[in-house]
Amino acid sequence: MLSLNIYIEEMKKYVLGLIIISLTYACNSKQESAQQIIDKAIAKAGGERYKNAEIKFDFRKGSYRSKRTGGDYELERIIPDSTGNQYRDIVDNNGFTRYYKDTVVKLTDSMKTVYANSVNSVHYFVQLPFGLNDDAVNKKLIGKDTIDNKEYYEIEVTFDAEGGGEDHEDVYMYWIGTQSYHVDYLAYSFEVNDGGLRFRKAYNPRTIEGIRFVDYENYKIDDLSTPLSNLDDLYEARQLELLSKIETKNIQVGLVE
C-alpha cells in the first residue's frame, strides 16, 4: 500500500509537471512577434486610410502635402524664399523634382538626394507608424519595459542598404504600448553630421478622419555610446536634454475614393 501511495504521488508530480510545461509553451507561443505588434500599431493609428489619403500640414517654415492612391504616392514641400516666391519640392514614384516659380530647377544627383531625404523625413515622422511596413524595414522585438508605470514593447528597426535610402545605417527603437498599441516614445541613432542620438516623447495626440497624429518633445544626449534601449531609463531619470519641440500644425486629411 505504501509503495502504491508513493507511485500515485509521483504520478501526480509528473502530470503537474506536464501541465506546467504545456501552459508555459502555450503562453510563449502566444507571444506576439514584432511584425504583429507593428501591424496592430499601424491599424490603431489609421490602417488602410493611409494608403488612400491626401494629408496636408504645416511644419516650421514649410507647407507639406502627401497623396497616396494605392501604390502611387506624391510627397510635397513648399518653402517661401525671402522675396515671397516659393520652392516646391516633389518626391514621387519617379524620383525627386524641385520647382521655383513653376520652373524645374536643375540639380546635381547629390543635391536631389539631400532634398528628397529632407522631404521624406518630415512626412515619415508625421505619419508614423505607417512607414514601418516598407519593404526595406527590418523589425526585431527586444522585449518589454515600463515608462512612467506603463508597459511597452521595445522594437528595434533597421534598414536594408537596398531600398533603405541614404540613411539606411540609422537605427531606431520604438516603445509601443502593450495595451494601446500607440507609439508613445521612439529613439534613433544617426550617422550624418558626425552622428547623434535622439529620444522623442509623443504628446498632443489627435485623430483626424481616422488617422492619428502626435507632436514630439525631442531630447538628446551627448554620449553617443549609449544604447538606444537605455534612453527610456535616462529620460525617466531626467538625464536627457530637451532640444526642441516638433509640432505639426493645421493638419487636414482628405480620404481619396
TrEMBL record:
**InterPro entries, alphabetically?**
DUF6503
Per its UniProt entry, which superkingdom is the organism in? Answer: Bacteria
UniProt-listed Pfam families: DUF6503 (PF20113)
Q: What is this protein called?
A: Deoxyribose-phosphate aldolase
Biological source species = Salegentibacter holothuriorum
